[in-house]
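>> received
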Amino acid sequence: MRVSSRHLSLFLVLALLVASMSVLVSTAAPQEQEKEQEQEDALVEVPIVNTDGLYTVLDAHDRVLVLWTTGRRTCAQCKTASKVVNQLANDANLQEENIHVVIFDCDRDVETCKTHKVTTYPHFTFFLDGFGVYEKDGTTDHMSMNSWIRSLLVEKVAIFESLSEAEDAISSNVEYLIGFFEDLESKPYRSFLATAYKMFGEFKFGALEVKDVDSFHSEEFFLMFPEHLEKLPTVVLFHQGASGLKAHHYDGNFSRRGIREFAEQSSSLLLTEIRAGQLSAHIHRHQKTCIAYLDYEDEHHNLMLLALEELAENLQGVSFVYTQKSLHKADLDYFGLSDTSGPVFTLFDSGTRNHFVFLNANGDVPEVFDVNELESWLELVLSNRVAKYVKKQKAPETQTGPVQVLVHDTFFAATHSDAAHSLVILHYLSTCQYSMEFRTVFHEVAAQLASDELVFAEIDFEKNPNPPGARVFNFPTVRMHLPGLLSRQVTFVGQRTPENLTEFILENVPEPTGEIEVDTTEHEESDEFGVAE
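>> returned
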């Protein structure tokens, strides 16, 4: 085989190019590795501290992130979390916020971890001004932790420079918890600050340093509330209501628990407006909450608010809130009251999670508001003399078709009888697409198999969410209750097709009971091979 000189020269050029590139790569690789090593060497390594070291850091820094970990080999998440905090410690943006990061190994000092109520690993605590006010469990990534920390750095207490500045803030907010102090470096202020860290979002917090007490006492604002502001330090909850500005004064010992309990108890004596999205948080913060769904365009709206304010102050043990009726259609739909014209009042007990609905003797929502009737009803609720609200359908007067309709009041009897038939029940949600698709299949199978011995039924959990005796958590669900005692049951599992559902039902239908007929006809004997002689 002959190779031309031209081809040979091209081959030599290509070989030289490949060789030069490999040399460049081989020299670049160590340089890149050296650069990476230099960057790693430049990283700040998060220290692992003991108990004395932890408290030294907390005393020296206002913002400290602590990773509580364990050195056990089984904690893979702890190793991941350690890498994350190392990244956080070297985050330039967080370094500008003066956040100090440390790791505490709970294997070295179990008691310190118990003191800080650390029970799972890894666990993060973010300390602000010496208070461990924010907790986070489990492993996470750098970006998520960065976002979490930044959300914690939002100002929790507004520092007012003057009384007039505080007055402006109070006039533009429904509720404001303001502390008046002679020194913002004092221990009472630190307790107030710690309360703000815990309750931020539930209340707005502000603080005013009173440098000249005599001048303060001559201010017009002070003269409005002399009994509340005469003694310093003090905390006052200001509330803008329908009847004007009201104030509640804290006269207990300055502690985080004391201030928190004062805020919660004082808030329960006030009528508070709840905007869209805030209702759930409020009702779970109080033991019992009376919710007024009002039409703000009603000509008697302000008079109703005045009456409710007075009731809120006089009736102990109930927090009162009001909200615009049109913003809570889903709530009113739940109670079946979305078409009512008058105000709607309900009471929610966060301890039992029970709802109560204010109805008249006819079981309807009163069209005319009477605060005395509402007060009497609330007193009956508090004395456990009113039945809780149960969302349920009315039982149909007649049953048509192969599938019976069960409701809250008929479900238990249907599933706990000693009937001689088998009962197949579809539990579904009328708002669920998968439920409604499978309901069509269920009705198709019922039309083929329904008989006196095999009964088909369905119950809509959207309209009957808590039927007695039902323990269903996934929808749609088909259960087959066996005859004799219908509490015996089997659950359908598999693809939701007519064939699979039919097979499931036929496999579980008991054999017909009764006398066994014995065939007495004579048969020809057969030999061992089954051939008649």
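>> Residues 5-42 form the longest helix (38 residues).
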